[in-house]
Write a structure and sequence with these properties.
Number of helices of chain A: 2
Strand content of chain B: under 5%
CATH superfamily of chain A: Dimeric alpha+beta barrel
Order of helices and strands of chain B: HHHHHHHHHEHHHHHHHHHEH
Largest interface: A-B, 11 and 12 residues
Shape of chain A: globular
CATH class of the domain at 305-395 in chain B: Mainly Alpha
Helix content of chain A: 10-25%
CATH architecture of the domain at 305-395 in chain B: Alpha Horseshoe
Order of helices and strands of chain A: EHEEEEHE
Number of strands of chain B: 2
Helix content of chain B: 55-70%
CATH architecture of chain A: 2-Layer Sandwich
Radius of gyration of chain A: 15 Å
Strand order of the largest sheet of chain B: 1-2
CATH class of chain A: Alpha Beta
Number of domains of chain A: 1
CATH topology of the domain at 305-395 in chain B: Serine Threonine Protein Phosphatase 5, Tetratricopeptide repeat
CATH topology of chain A: Alpha-Beta Plaits
Oligomer: heterodimer
Number of strands of chain A: 6
Distance between the termini of chain A: 8 Å
Chain lengths: 118, 395
C-alpha cells in the first residue's frame, strides 16, 4: 500500500492551550492508530513535537533560535500512514484530532528506519 | 478509448502514446483492408494491445514508477464500449485534490482529446504554461495515487458535484468567452455539452447530472440568436424566439421534470428550471417572473452565493420593480464579494436606466466596461453608455 506523511499543523497560542483541551487532544491522539486500523489503514510511525519555541534552525551552518519558517500554524507532529490510495488516505487523515488547525497529506517518496518502506 | 487503455497501462502518458500508435496503425491497415465494421472498437483493441506490448517491454522500468491505483474489481468489459473506464477517468481528472484549473485542463486533454495548444488558447495562457500545468497534474495523480475509480456511494454526490462543476465551468467559458472578438467559443461549449450528455448517460440515476445537461441544453437552444449578424450582443428581449432550438428546449424540460420527480432538486436542476422558464416563454412579456423568483429563493437556500442574489435581483426587478432590485444590488456592492464581476455594475446600470436616472446609469455602464475584455460585451455596454449620456444631457 502507498505511504503518506500526515503533517499536523496547529495554531500557536501565546500562552499555550488550556489544559483540559490539551488533555482531550492527547487522548484523541492515542486513540488514532486504532481508529485508522479499524478503517483499513495503518500508522507505521509517528512523532509529537515540543512547541516551535523550543526549535533551533540551522541555515548555511548558522544556528538560530526558533523554527525554520515563522508561520501562524506550526507543525505539531507528523505520522506516516499506509492507505489504499489518496481517497482512502484523505479519509483517514481527516480523523486526525487538532485544535484550530489541520493536516497536510504528502505522498512518501522514500523512507528509512520505517518498516514496509515502498 | 484512452480511458480503456489507461486501465491496461495504469499510466496516462503511456496510454496516450499507445492510442496515438493505434491511429498510425489504423491508417495503414484500413487503407489496405478497408475500414472495419466497428472502427472505435478496432482502435481500442489495438491501442490496448500496443499498451500491453509496451508494458512488457519496459516492465523493469515500470516496476519502479508509481502507477495509477486500480479498483480491485475485474468486471468484464461491457459490450459496445467502456463506459466504466470513461467514468473512472472523469473522476480522476476532476479529483478535488487537483486545482480547479488543472481539473479543467486534464478533462479537456484526456477525456475530450483537445490538444494542449488549443487548451492554452481557450484559457488565455501560454502553451508552455498549459503544458506545465497538465504535466504537474499528471505527476500528482501518479505520485499521490489519486485513484482511477468511481467513488463509493457515500462520496459520489460530492465528487459528482465537483465533476459537474468542471463541465459547467467549461461551458460558461465557451458560452461567454472571457476575451476576444467572439461572444461564444463554440467548440468549448460543444465539448461541455458532450461531456454533460456522457455523464448523464453513464449515471442515469444522478439527478444533478440530468440537471446540468438540461441547463446546458436550455442555454444552447438560444445560442444562434444571442448575437446579431455583426456579432453584436442581443439581450433576451431582443432575441428572435422563433429561431430558438425547440427540440433542445423540449429535451431540457423532460430532463427537469424527471429530476424534480425523483427527489429534492440540486443547484444545477434549479438553474435549469429557471433557464427553461425563460426558454419556454412565447415572448419576453410572457415570462413567468413570479415562478422564476420562487426558483431563485429555492436556489438560495441550498446555494447562498452573492452571484445567485444578483441574478435573483434581476427577476425581482420584474415582479416588484427596479427600485427593490437596486437596493439588493447596492447592498451587494457594499458587501464587496462581487468586486471585479462586471455583471454587477451592468445590472445596476440597467436598473438605473429603467428608473430614469441616466447620469448614474452611464457611470455604472462605464464601470462595467472596464471590467470585461469580451469585445461583443464591450460594444454592447458602450452603446448603452452613450445612449444614457445622451439622455442625461438632454435634460
Amino acid at each position: 500500500m502507498p505511504q503518506y506523511a500526515v503533517l499536523i499543523y496547529n495554531r500557536e497560542l501565546p500562552d499555550g492551550f488550556p489544559p483540559e483541551q490539551l488533555r482531550d487532544l492527547m487522548q484523541a491522539n492515542e486513540e488514532l492508530p486504532a481508529r485508522v486500523a479499524e478503517n483499513g489503514g495503518q500508522i507505521v510511525a509517528g512523532v509529537a513535537l515540543e512547541p516551535p519555541a523550543t526549535a533551533t534552525a540551522i541555515r548555511g551552518g548558522a544556528f538560530t533560535d526558533g523554527p525554520f519558517a515563522e508561520t501562524k500554524e506550526a507543525i505539531a507532529g507528523l505520522y506516516v500512514l499506509e492507505a489504499r490510495d489518496l481517497d482512502h488516505a484523505l479519509a483517514l487523515a481527516a480523523m486526525t484530532p487538532s485544535i484550530d488547525g489541520g493536516v497536510e497529506v504528502r505522498p512518501v517518496f522514500g523512507t528509512f528506519g520505517i518498516p514496509g518502506a515502498s | 478509448m484512452l480511458a480503456a487503455t489507461v486501465r491496461v497501462t495504469r499510466d496516462i502518458d503511456a496510454a496516450e502514446e499507445a492510442v496515438q500508435d493505434a491511429y498510425v496503425q489504423a491508417l495503414a491497415a484500413w487503407a489496405r483492408d478497408g475500414v472495419p465494421a466497428r472502427p472505435g472498437a478496432w482502435l481500442t483493441t489495438v491501442s490496448r494491445r500496443i499498451a500491453l506490448n509496451n508494458l512488457r517491454r519496459d516492465r523493469t522500468l515500470q516496476r519502479k514508477l508509481p502507477l495509477l491505483i486500480m479498483a480491485e474489481d475485474t468486471q468484464p468489459t461491457p459490450p459496445g464500449g467502456f463506459p466504466d473506464d470513461r467514468l473512472r477517468l472523469v473522476f480522476t481528472c476532476c479529483h478535488p485534490a487537483l486545482s480547479a484549473e488543472a481539473q479543467v485542463a486534464l478533462t479537456l486533454r484526456l477525456i475530450c482529446g483537445v490538444s494542449t495548444p488549443d487548451i492554452a488558447r481557450a484559457f488565455l495562457v501560454s502553451e508552455p504554461a498549459m503544458a506545465a500545468r497538465i504535466t504537474r497534474a499528471k505527476k500528482k495523480i501518479a505520485a499521490a495515487h489519486i485513484p482511477y475509480a468511481v467513488p463509493a456511494a457515500a462520496e459520489l454526490p460530492g465528487r459528482l458535484d465537483a465533476a459537474l462543476t468542471v463541465v459547467h465551468l467549461l461551458y460558461t467559458t465557451g458560452h461567454t468567452a472571457a476575451s476576444g472578438a467572439d461572444l461564444i467559443r463554440d467548440d468549448l461549449a460543444d465539448r461541455a455539452l458532450d461531456l454533460a450528455r456522457m455523464l448523464h448517460q453513464l449515471l442515469p440515476a444522478g439527478r444533478e447530472a440530468a440537471g446540468l445537461l438540461a441547463l446546458l441544453l436550455a442555454h444552447q437552444a438560444r445560442r444562434d440568436t444571442r448575437t446579431d449578424a455583426d456579432g453584436g450582443l442581443l439581450r433576451l428581449e431582443e432575441q428572435d424566439r422563433s429561431r430558438w432550438d425547440h427540440d433542445q428546449i423540449a429535451e431540457a424540460d423532460r430532463l427537469i421534470v424527471a429530476a424534480l420527480k425523483a427527489g429534492p432538486p440540486g443547484r444545477f436542476t434549479l438553474q435549469a428550471a429557471i433557464a427553461a422558464l425563460h426558454a419556454q416563454a412565447r415572448c419576453y412579456a410572457d415570462t413567468d417572473w413570479p415562478q422564476i423568483l420562487t426558483l431563485y429563493d429555492a436556489l438560495l437556500t441550498i446555494w447562498p452565493a452573492p452571484v445567485v442574489l444578483l441574478n435573483r435581483a434581476a427577476a425581482l426587478s420584474m415582479t416588484e420593480g427596479p427600485q427593490a432590485a437596486l437596493a439588493v444590488v447596492e447592498s451587494l456592492e457594499d458587501d464587496g464579494s462581487l468586486a471585479g464581476y462586471h455583471y454587477l455594475p451592468a445590472t445596476k446600470a440597467d436598473l438605473l436606466r429603467r428608473l430614469g436616472r441616466p447620469a448614474e446609469a452611464a457611470e455604472a455602464y462605464q464601470a462595467a466596461l472596464t471590467l470585461t475584455s469580451n469585445r461583443a460585451e464591450q460594444e454592447f455596454l458602450n452603446r448603452r453608455m452613450v445612449m444614457a449620456r445622451r439622455q442625461a444631457s438632454a435634460r
